[in-house]
């Protein structure tokens, strides 16, 4: 069983999926053993206290709302629910993010979701009016700030 924090990105743009993977799953510079050997070769004895690696993310993709809802349903049924879903507001020609959120929460009412978009057909106030003030729902504006994205992912996927 993997210790990675599972994230689903629901967005109609393949480039957005690539960006999320690049920001949340940066290439590791080799195994910890390889890095320790290299550090010892370059600098002598390894430091007394190595800096612990942060959590790793497993990022999966869905390109439309209904596909995302199906993936969440499958993950819950398999006993491996997603820790977090990043959900785009607009996904032409399919349903929008708010419609998808309604369906997601029917399938998995405690699913944490971050709504993402540069534009929205709904104001945040309208969304809060419909879904209520809840720690399960956040908003992230595009273009995405990499540091903000990573901090949201870290905070919202904490066990």
From TrEMBL:
Source species: Cystobacter ferrugineus
Modified residues (4-aspartylphosphate): 88
Keywords: Phosphoprotein
InterPro entries: CheY-like_superfamily (IPR011006), Sig_transdc_resp-reg_receiver (IPR001789)
Lineage, uppermost ranks: Bacteria, Pseudomonadati, Myxococcota, Myxococcia, Myxococcales
One Gene Ontology biological process: phosphorelay signal transduction system
Record's protein name: Response regulatory domain-containing protein
Domain Response regulatory stretches: 6-157
